[in-house]
Every structure is written in C-alpha cells, then in structure tokens.
Amino acid sequence: LFFTLAPASAADKPNVIVIVGDDMGYADVGVHGCKDIPTPNLDALANAGVRFTSGYVSGPYCSPTRAGLLTGRYQTRFGHEFNPAGMAQGLPLTETTIADRMKAAGYATGWVGKWHLGGGDRHPQKRGFDEAFGFLGGAHSYFPDKGKGDTVLRGTKDANETEYLTDAFGREAVAFVDKNKAKPFFLYLAFNAVHTPMHATDARLKKFEGIKDTQRRTYAAMMFAMDEAVGKVLDKLKSEKLDQNTLIFFFSDNGGPTMQGTTLNGSINAPLRGSKRTTLEGGVRVPFFARWPAQIPANKVYEHPVIQLDIAPTVFAATGIGPKVDWKLDGVNLLPHLTGQSKEPPHDALYWRFGTQMAIRKGDWKLVKYDLAAESGKGTSDTKLYNLANDIGEKSDLAAKQPEKVKELQGAWGTWNKGNVAPLWGGGKAKD
User: Fold this and answer.
1) Catalytic pick from 32, 34, 62, 195?
2) Is the model's pLDDT at 257 over the cut of 70?
3) Which of 33, 289, 392, 405 could cross-link 46 (Cys pair, CB 3.0–4.6 Å)?
4) Is the pTM of this model over 0.70?
5) Is 62 annotated as catalytic?
6) H-state helical runs in 61-140
7) Which residues have C-beta within 8 Å of that of residue 137, sequence separation ≥ 6?
8) What digits encode the pLDDT tens for the residues 72-88?
C-alpha cells in the first residue's frame, strides 16, 4: 500500500536518477567477474542495492531502448523499432515521457548525455526536461578537436564544451544535483561511453598499458572514465545526505557490439552468445542495477527477468504519481518484488521484435530468431529454442525435441505482436 500512496510531503519524495551506459559488454563490470577493468563505483552501486542477473532491454539497439525507457512501453507499440536516420525522426509526439509525468508532479527534471531521440519538437526540453546538456544524435567525439558530431548543447545553445565528454557529463550531473538538492529531482544521465569513437585520455590509457590489445585498452580507459563519473554523482549524493532517499537505476542500452557491422569497441559479453543488433542474449541482456537504501535491501541478487520498461512504472510508484491503467505501460512496478512483498516473477514473459528478428522469454525458455551476421551468415536464423537455466550461452537448440514448447511460445509472441505497429522508419540498417 505504501507504494501506491503519495508521500506525505515533498521532503519525503525520493529523488530519482536513471543512469545509462552505451554498448557495454555484459562481462565488463566487476560484479559480473571482470578482471581487467576495475569498476569500483558501479560495483558499489550494485552491492548497495539489487543486481539483476536477468536484466534486459527491449531492443538490441541504442535509440529503441531509450524510447522504451522513457515511455515504459515496448517501442514497437508506437513504431520506434529502429534507430532514427536523422533529427526529423525520433520519439513520436504521441508518447508521454517519464520526464513529462515527473515534471507535472512537481519534480525538477534534467537530462545529461546522449539523446538519440530526435530534434526540433523532440528536443529534451520539449519532452519534459527542464534542463538539458548533451548531444542529440547517436554518437559523438569525446574530445572537442577530434572527429565530428552534432553540437554539445546546453539547452538549445552551443555549450562550447572543452572537457573530455564523459568527464563533462559527470560534472553536469553533479551540478544538477547541487542546483536541485533542496527539492525532489529526476535526472536522466545517459552516457555515450563506451560507444565508438574509441577516445580515451592519456592518463587513463596509461593506467591500462598492461592490456596488450589496443582496442580493449582504450575501451577499458573509457569504462573507467564512466565509472569515475558515476562515482562523483554518488559522492555528491552522500555529501548532501541525499543518498538514502535517492532511487538509482543503472543499465546498458544494449549488449556489447562484438560482430562485424556494428560499432566494435572491444567489449566482451561472456558467457552470453551474440552481440548488439541481435536478439540473442548478448544483444539484450545487460548489466542492470537498482539502489534505494531507504526501501530496497542491500546485497540483493534478483534472478527473475526484468526489463528497462519496468523503470518508469517503478519510479511512478515510488514517487506516488502512478502508474495508471490508461497510461498503457508494458513495464511493471518492481518494488513489491524487490522488498519481498511479492515472491512472484514480475513478468509472465518478455518479448522482442527487431525487423525479422524476434524473441520471447517465458520462465527459463527462450524462443528466438536472430541476425545470422553474428555468425558470419546472412539474413535471419530459423526459430531456435533454448533453456536458459541450463544453457545461458544459447548453444543447444531444443526446437526439434520440444515442438509443443515452440508452438506455445510462438503463439504467445504472436498474441503480443498484435499490439505492435509497423515501423515508422528504417529497417535496422541506420548507423549509430
């Protein structure tokens, strides 16, 4: 009941920070066993709350995942199936964002980082964010004098940014917290690290000079920079005595890009098979953590599948502003599951559609058709069936042995798919 009632006063309302990494490998954080890249702040975040071992995103690509995050709805419900090709395409204006709802509830709202959801009427400040700092496209140079990218903006004006971009995003996130510390706030901190281009500072590269592979070395330095930026935000919350009542989510927008035809960055998805751009586990299962010391127990490992669509309804429940049935959210409020009030899985099943690729996970079973380019082929695979409890690496196809399970899952996916619409643009080929 607590989570369905509005908090008694503004002072009781939790602050909310949603942090997104970009193109991270599943194996590339310490709590997942990474040995060559220290991620102490991400590890501390995970250990102070909940680590989701089956944390998913609703798309294997950057922009669709962000559209799902901000709406709490499968992006295929409103045609945002693929990356937009330019600023004229992006999150449909028919959709209401989490920032719209938080702002209406009296929260200060801010976005820092990568947008990738369109420009013009789709600019963050027209989608519910009071404050905005970052770039609107899908990728950007980390140094102001290297490569190209759309302008880093403060609001709608050129920010004339000169700092290494990951450091700048950390700086701006801390500044937003400082400015709004006396009232409840919502911050969406969307790093472009560790997406290409592969740019790192000399000092951080030197720290990883023991890594012989140059791409992996740069990737490690970029990951370390993001971890440091996250640490600065966590330190700021603690210094202002805001850490106990701030709900934080962290996840990667998709799996690491490990196959040709994607933005290769040196990431590792082990023990998962597949890559960004595929509906295999390596494309859609990601590092995923939540922390809220005032309500969520620490050192909790949660094994039931969750998805980034759950963040919006969880935030709405935590802040007492919803969720409401007519919002047509596909995500669910995770709080009863994380506090032990509910022992049931949050979802009966999770679903994916990405062009000719598809997947459904129901319990331990996963039915999938994936991009064969992940295995040096062309087109889309035949339908495969895996039991993830015994085969997290999706190596043993059980479709021929379990035809009834295949039929069951195909039927469930088909029913779900009836609620989707045709893509508004693209076919999965747009570069990010």
Assistant:
1) 62
2) yes
3) 289
4) yes
5) yes
6) 62-71, 98-104
7) 87, 114, 115, 116, 149, 150
8) 999 999 999 999 999 99
